[in-house]
């Protein structure tokens, strides 16, 4: 999930905060938790439902951004005589949230955690999501513990999931993990992240899956103010994501075998969308021979190169259409796979920040035990796809609009100035309108040929000088024109 948390300071603080408050009102973002919900959360934090199985001897560790405190996952990796063992602990939200209670109702209203530059709107009260239920280091807490055995090639051979008491030993971040792995100083449980991650990436290639290493546009604080920057994912980001993908795939297989569940699905991209992507590749001077598959091409790109980064950003359009598919009573749905994963898959590894994951965990626990899912899970199942779709739309809108607002705040005093940029998207029906990616500052914004300047289409993939014609934090609008 996006992590765009900053402390907003400086001269633009007041108008920026006003614009963000207006955005939250427009998106109908939930306000602070009510006193009764907070009281229930405090009781739950003191008296969670604890499992009988004690796994606190497993030296788990977490990998998250440095400032994160809502820690959903902790892992431990080890060797086996013929492969590897992945232990993956997921925060057990159901140990704290009583079905039908006030916390449960509030979570169904919020659906996901929302991230804004000036604050975070959590799915659960912080006393749980950043406290008692979070897999913080040296804290004993309930979890859903996955044990997945892999063969020497990284293929799953056995899966177990159960409730357990766990205790993480260390809170790591991506940059420090990458540094240890590159230097060869990581101890075996962490060093195996690279080994297993690479094997899982090879398995992804074999099944035709795709992981898009798209550079992220990040809002960061620096010297008492804020700025936008591009961040290309580290290899450790991808290896860590492979552990989560592995678990989501194992969970989907468990539910399918048991006959009841909820999957994260994505249909194959229509021919028209792929055709448009091929035209974009030509415009960006990316060689895409017809005998080379889309997946092969993606793996050959370098996100540090501007024209490759622009193409990778365009590839995200093929991910539109993802949703949640519920099935029950042994009736397999028509669509069971996620096209980018190239396998059945579900969301189950972020229950502190996403509602559906709590239900997926319960369904998997029941499947592993050979039992029927709890009645409260079955009762809510049919409504989940619609609820998650609404929450996901709101989260996506919040992310996009927040970046637009910060871009406008950064540029509001620079209207009329010239910048260097690259056109990364052109509308097919209106080729004088598109998207430009600036080199500095790291802004991605709309570009439109001004009236009276002719009707030539924007040069997709070309570097050009652009002039800022509009920047208003209040309307979250930034607009450029070819110089």
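Q: What amino acid sequence fits the structure above?
A:
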């Amino acid at each position: 999930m996006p992590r765009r948390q900053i402390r907003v300071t400086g001269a633009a603080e007041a108008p920026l905060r006003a614009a963000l408050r207006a955005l939250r009102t427009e998106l109908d973002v939930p306000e602070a938790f009510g006193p009764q919900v907070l009281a229930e959360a405090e009781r739950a934090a003191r008296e969670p439902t604890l499992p009988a199985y004690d796994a606190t001897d497993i030296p788990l560790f977490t990998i998250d951004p440095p400032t994160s405190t809502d820690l959903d996952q902790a892992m431990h990796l080890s060797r086996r005589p013929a492969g590897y063992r992945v232990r993956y602990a997921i925060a057990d939200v159901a140990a704290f949230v009583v079905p039908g209670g006030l916390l449960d109702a509030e979570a169904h209203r919020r659906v996901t955690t929302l991230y804004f530059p000036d604050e975070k709107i959590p799915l659960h009260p912080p006393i749980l999501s950043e406290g008692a239920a979070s897999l913080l280091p040296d804290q004993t807490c309930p979890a859903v513990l996955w044990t997945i055995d892999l063969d020497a090639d990284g293929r799953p051979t056995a899966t177990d999931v159960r409730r357990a008491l766990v205790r993480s030993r260390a809170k790591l971040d991506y940059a420090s993990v990458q540094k240890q792995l590159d230097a060869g100083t990581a101890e075996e449980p962490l060093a195996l992240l690279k080994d297993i991650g690479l094997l899982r990436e090879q398995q992804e290639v074999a099944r035709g899956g795709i992981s898009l290493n798209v550079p992220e546009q990040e809002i960061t604080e620096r010297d008492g103010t804020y700025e936008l920057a591009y961040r290309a994912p580290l290899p450790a980001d991808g290896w860590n994501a492979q552990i989560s993908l592995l678990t989501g795939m194992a969970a989907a297989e468990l539910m399918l075998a048991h006959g009841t569940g909820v999957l994260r699905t994505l249909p194959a991209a229509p021919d028209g969308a792929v055709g448009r992507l091929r035209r974009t590749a030509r415009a960006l001077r990316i060689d895409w021979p017809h005998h080379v598959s889309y997946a092969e091409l993606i793996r050959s790109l370098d996100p540090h190169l501007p024209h490759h980064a622009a193409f990778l950003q365009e590839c995200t359009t093929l991910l539109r259409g993802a949703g949640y598919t519920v099935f029950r009573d042994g009736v397999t749905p028509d669509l069971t796979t996620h096209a980018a994963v190239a396998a059945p898959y579900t969301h189950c590894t972020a229950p502190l920040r996403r509602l559906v994951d709590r239900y997926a965990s319960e369904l998997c626990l029941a499947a592993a035990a050979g039992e029927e899912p709890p009645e409260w899970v079955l009762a809510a199942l049919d409504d989940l796809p619609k609820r998650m779709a609404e929450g996901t739309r709101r989260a996506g809108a919040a992310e996009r609009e927040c970046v637009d607002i910060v871009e406008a705040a950064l540029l509001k005093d620079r209207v009329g100035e010239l910048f260097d940029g690259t056109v990364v998207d052109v509308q097919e029906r209106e080729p004088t309108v598109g998207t430009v990616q600036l080199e500095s500052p790291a802004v991605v914004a709309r570009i439109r040929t001004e009236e009276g300047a002719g009707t030539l289409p924007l040069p997709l993939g070309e570097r050009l000088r652009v002039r800022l014609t509009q920047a208003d934090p209040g309307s979250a609008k930034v607009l450029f024109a070819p110089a």
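Q: And what stands out in the fold?
A: Residues 1-12 have pLDDT under 50 and may be disordered.
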